[in-house]
Amino acid sequence: MAHRLLAERVRAGDTVIDATAGNGHDTLFLAELVGDTGRVHAYDVQSSAIRATEVRLESVGYKDRVELHHASHTDIAEREEPIQAAIFNLGYLPGSDKQIITQADSTLEAVQSALSRLMSGGIVLLVVYVGHAGGEKEAEALERYARTLSTHEYLVLKYEYINPDNRPPYILAIEKK
Amino acid sequence: MAHRLLAERVRAGDTVIDATAGNGHDTLFLAELVGDTGRVHAYDVQSSAIRATEVRLESVGYKDRVELHHASHTDIAEREEPIQAAIFNLGYLPGSDKQIITQADSTLEAVQSALSRLMSGGIVLLVVYVGHAGGEKEAEALERYARTLSTHEYLVLKYEYINPDNRPPYILAIEKK
């Protein structure tokens, strides 16, 4: 679903952000969308994530399309060029230490930075997990913030599976008008 | 959004249902999707809705693609052929008597009938309004029911704008696996 929303809005030549590179799945998908002339900036605080993403990109020859930042996604504020999209895949890195999770405060700061750089017609996607310790707190903070965004400037759409056995992530999609 | 979801799944030649013809907007959209070889069954209890829908269809030459049923959507149970999609646009008929609203019990019965005829890969869309008297009750009943649907057989996705000034409708999309 998140990829479908990105594919609808990201075109060749666009600049986009993967705020949580993780194992590189979203980075790779974005690199496909922006093509040879576009640019993906991918962030992760964990060196294992940056390495995994690099390997994945090299395997398909997309390394040149991506700038890897071994840094917190709060560093999104340090650049200024407008972006067409950003994705935040929250929670912990699959297959790694579940103690290292994204945190409400820094996530919120990074989301605000991404929105400040978002172009009209662009989208910021938050893939929100509530199944791990700390997940509920982060989810609440993000949803509270998203509800305050002006309807004149943004549409915020929540996509949620409501009949699952366990608790899957849901998506908050913030679209700039 | 509802139309986008329908367009993704409905193809020429399909049989589909507009459970609440209303002013005919959804009926017309479905008639476009199913084409000359498909069939739309449109239901409404209000004769003004059936007339408005008929006029709209005739104006674009789609009358032959649609069977209008001046009847409650609970009559969906009286037919048996499989359907690819059904849409329920709940609440009251725009521009008419706001006392005549869809009711939780009959809506739930009609939704169950539609699901029993739904083909694999098909979708039932509920456009749920909560801004009018009785809306909350119907919404709660539908969402409670949707949450009970087996994840082996259905995916239920809720699409909801969360930053509006007023309370727009939200969508429950029930997709048959």
Automatic annotation (TrEMBL), chains A, B:
Protein origin, superkingdom: Bacteria
InterPro entries (alphabetical): MnmM_MeTrfase, SAM-dependent_MTases_sf
TM segment ranges: none
Name of the protein in question: rRNA methylase
Organism: Aneurinibacillus migulanus (Bacillus migulanus)
